[in-house]
Amino acid sequence: MAEFTQEQLLELVNTSQVAAGNPRVRQVAQRVVSDLFRAIDDLDVSPDEFWAGVNWLARLGASGQMGLITAGLGFDRLLDIREDEADAKAGRAAGTPRAIEGPLYIAGAPLSEREVRVDEAPQRGEVLVMEGRVLDTDGRPVAGALVDVWHANEKGRYSHFDPDQKDFALRRKIRTGADGSYRFRSFVPPGYAIPPNSPTSELFSALGRHGNRPAHIHFLVAAEGQRTLTTQVNIPGDTFLDDDFAFATRDGLVVTLEPNTAPAGYESLDVREPFTRVRFDFVMQKASSDDEARPAARMERVAA
Ligand code: MBD
Ligand code: FE
């Protein structure tokens, strides 16, 4: 009764049940456990190897780096590819390409109407003004869209995850005007590198991989009746543009940096010197359900 082969044990683990539970959770858990049992046997994983893996997962969870690992092992991009495929199949592939949210979004950034300075004086790096409109797939402006923007500081670090930065530093929300327009001032950010001496860097060095992302700016764009758009734009010329550790860069999202020597018209953003201008319109798909239009980031969506 209590002596099992591997197969009998797996069957017991997967079928034991005293209540209905959640059928979908049962289905996914059964599959994952089955695949892991098989991997342990196929690869002859030793007890020390197994417990080293569990120890690493425990430290990973405690470090708050789960989202770095999902990105670095390609899961975040996989979900985007699958959504793109579903859109193509449904004949609704359109608008600005989606790009992964990443693990560094924080909800609740300060809201401004139409424009904002995202950074704070003193200026760090090249002055950047990014501007454009939020449009629907028919080219009509989306008024009152909420454009959440966040990016790394001059050291490649994100506020909230960095004790040296103020709350919501380099995180802002902009509501588009009647013509769908938005604009903001900041600086051209550098790339990002995973923290050294961390569970993530431990795995990446064991895999012989680097943990760099090319310079980028994140956006979460939400508007009534439109499908919430999560995307990023990339700064051209970065060494890691085609070698992103998170596999997240995409055609159509590498912006053009335009040198602009005439700051007239940008006084409200305190721009008084030559600056780098980026023009970019966000094009949103029409939402096919209220759920698709929820103005929520990935963890807000699934929070109990
Ligand atoms: C980032 O800045 C990022 O955007 C992602 C996806 C993963 C790690 C750091
Ligand atoms: Fe990022």
From TrEMBL:
Belongs to the intradiol ring-cleavage dioxygenase family. It comes from Roseateles agri. One of its GO terms (molecular function) is dioxygenase activity. Residues 130-158 form the Intradiol ring-cleavage dioxygenases domain. Signal peptide: none annotated. InterPro entries: Catechol_dOase_N, Intradiol_dOase_C, Intradiol_dOase_core, Intradiol_RC_Dioxygenase. This is Dioxygenase. Keywords: Dioxygenase, Iron, Metal-binding, Oxidoreductase. Pfam families: Dioxygenase_C (PF00775), Dioxygenase_N (PF04444). Its cofactor is Fe(3+). The keyword Oxidoreductase applies.
